[in-house]
Structures are given as C-alpha cells and as structure tokens.
Design goal:
It catalyses: (6R)-5,10-methylene-5,6,7,8-tetrahydrofolate + 3-methyl-2-oxobutanoate + H2O = 2-dehydropantoate + (6S)-5,6,7,8-tetrahydrofolate. α3 packs across α5, α6 packs across α7 and α7 packs parallel to α9. The chain folds into two domains: about 230 residues, TIM Barrel (Alpha-Beta Barrel); about 25 residues. It has an eight-stranded parallel barrel, surrounded by five helices. By secondary structure, it is of the alpha/beta class. β3, α6 and β4 form a beta-alpha-beta unit.
Length: about 270
C-alpha cells in the first residue's frame, strides 16, 4: 500500500461528531506552503476572503473575486491532505440562489474543497438549501459579517441587546434548517454565543464570540503575529512572526554585505 493511499482527509461527518465532545480547531490559509504546515494540526482550514486584506493589503474583503478565491483554494488543497478545506464565497457571488449555485459548482469542480462558506442569516436560507440539495456542503456565517462593513459603517460587535441576541439565534436555527453542517459565529457577545451553541445540533465555531462554543477560528497572520497594524481583542498571538522574520532578513543582509554568505560549503 502506498503512503498516499493511507492519507485520510477529515470528513464533514467527523466534524459533526465533535459537537459536545471535542473542540474544533480552524485556521485560515491562502497558499500551499502554509496549508502544508497547518495540515493535520487543525481540523479545518478556511480559505477566507480575509486574504484580500492580509495577503493583498486591501482595506476590506469586498474586492476579492471568485476567480481569486478558487486560485487560492486550489493552492491550499495542494498543501492540505488531511484537514477539511472550506472556500469562502466572496462578496457578490451569492447574490441569488442561482448565482450562488453556479459559483459553488465552480469551486467543487475546480478545487478539492469539501465545503463553501456563506455570510448571511435567515435571508440565505433558500441559497443554502439550494446548494445542499445539489450536493454542496455549506458552512454558515453570522454575527459580525465583514462583507457588510461598508453598509454597516464599520466592524460592530453583535448581540449587545435582547433583540439582537434573539435575531442571531433565529438566524442560526434557520441556517441549520437549511442544511448548513457548521456555523461560524463572529464578533458576538460571549453569553449569546453560548446560547446559540447550546441550541444548535451543528457545531458553532467562534471568532471573537467567547469560549463556550464548539471551536475556534483565527486568521493565521493574526495568530502568528505577522499582522502588525493592530491586534484585535479576540486574537491571541502565539508567535512574534513579523519580528522573527524581520530579524532573519536583517541577518541575511548583514551576511551578504560582509561576505560571510555564501561559504565554501554553500557554493558549487
């Protein structure tokens, strides 16, 4: 038996089975190199439209195209052989159920992603239902929705009052009914996140939504300390990535200028 044939990719069934048993871990990735490093260490890898900010340097996520998302998802799938890969559906690609289905079919045909992620609450019920009926696995996304940053006038924490909390719970239940197998809950008050997780049969993965959900997701460049402009409250940095890389580059420059690099054993 070949090594390749023994590799087993995480399945949607396995993710569902972790509900109330084991916390789910998710991290973003945009290329094969980092996907390969993260692979098997985390349960799920999200090719997030956040790449438009952390990779491209834009101010928000709205300008990324479906073509770009597919390109990066292909790259991530080349690096990730075990973790479950999810492709974010970018702004405008789910404007109608029909448009969403055509875009999601492209993702499935052109990449090895096992699911797509869609931002939106109850208004996305028909869209998610249509995708699921056509064999597309869907991760929902409610709470703070980055694709609405311009219309909402910024990034705002959700669930601050009873009306908002009830609305989020209704959205979550509706997406579960539509067939979403998992839900990302972003920027929601901790106590609201806990209630939503307790009332759903599917896993709820939080980002800035407290500890009492079924798992967590972070943007890799935030978590590893490569993004230096600011640090969101919900981020824990596990590495001073930017500092370490900058120091390594500075050492390389010194070695080149001094003639220390390359040495004889580094030359042909």
């Amino acid at each position: 038996m070949s090594i390749q044939s023994t590799i087993k990719q995480t399945t949607i069934t396995q993710i569902l089975e972790k509900k109330n048993k084991e916390k789910i871990t998710m991290i973003t990735a945009y290329d094969a190199l980092f996907a390969g490093i993260f692979d098997s260490e985390v349960d799920m890898i999200l090719v997030g439209d956040s790449l438009h900010m952390s990779f491209f340097g834009a101010k928000d996520t709205l300008g990324i195209s479906l073509d770009a998302m597919i390109y990066h998802t292909k790259a991530v799938c080349n690096g990730a052989k075990e973790s479950l890969v999810v492709c974010d559906m970018p702004f405008g690609s789910v404007a109608t159920p029909e448009i969403a289905l055509q875009g999601a079919i492209r993702v499935y045909k052109e990449t090895n992603a096992q699911a797509v992620k869609i931002e939106g609450g109850a208004e996305m019920y028909e869209t998610i239902k249509k995708l699921v009926e056509n064999g597309i696995a869907v991760v929902g996304h409610i709470g703070l929705k980055p694709q609405l940053v311009r219309s909402e006038g910024g990034y705002k924490v959700k669930g601050k009052n009873e009306k908002e909390a009830q609305g989020l719970l209704c959205d979550a239940i509706k997406l579960q009914e539509a067939g979403a197998f998992c839900l990302v809950l972003e920027g929601v008050r901790s106590e609201v996140g806990q209630v939503i997780a307790q009332n759903l049969k599917i896993p709820v993965i939080g980002i800035g939504s407290g500890v009492n959900v079924d798992g967590q997701v972070l943007v890799w460049s935030d978590m590893l300390g490569f993004f230096e402009a600011f640090k969101p409250k919900f981020v824990r940095q596990y590495l001073e990535g930017a500092r370490l890389v900058r120091e390594a580059v500075q050492q390389y420059v010194r070695d080149v200028k001094s003639g220390d690099f390359p040495k004889m054993n580094e030359s042909y």
